[in-house]
Amino acid sequence: MESCSAPRARGEGQAQEPDGRQRGGPRQALTHVPALTELHGIPRAYLAKRLQALSRAGIVQATAGQVGGHALTRPAASVTMLEVVQAIDGAEPAYRCTEIRQRGPLAVPAEQCGRPCAIARAMAEAQEAWYRALGAVSIADLAAGIDSDSDGTAMADVHRWLAASHR
Description:
Layout: E1 3-4, E2 31-32, H1 33-40, H2 44-56, E3 60-63, E4 69-72, H3 81-89, H4 118-135, H5 139-149, H6 154-165
Antiparallel strand pairs: 1-2, 3-4
């Protein structure tokens, strides 16, 4: 995997050319993986693995070749943090009940374990709250928040840096 795109939304439902352009539209600006690894100070293999997961989940689309890269498959406003987290980390819950209450010297008989224990219930509620929170924030919301935190300059600075440093 050699390239990546700065987050730029593609038109929903529009056909795309092999070089990453929307059919009849301008060619999308794509950025190579080395540029993003430098920008974020992360190892290339780390980013490549995450981009592969996002591509398998249909969140980004890879375009091969010297002019290739990655781009979102739909507008940033319609891609949630939940989708991204689940694509990278998987959809399995963080907590898995192993029914420890049925083990040890004070084990509870299986017949008394018809419903999840208090720990499992609390963890399931936390997981649902986590999913709701992540599902309520889009990639576009994140970009707006980043800009807000930087007095409105961060995203423009990133795009300028990528354009100047890595053509």
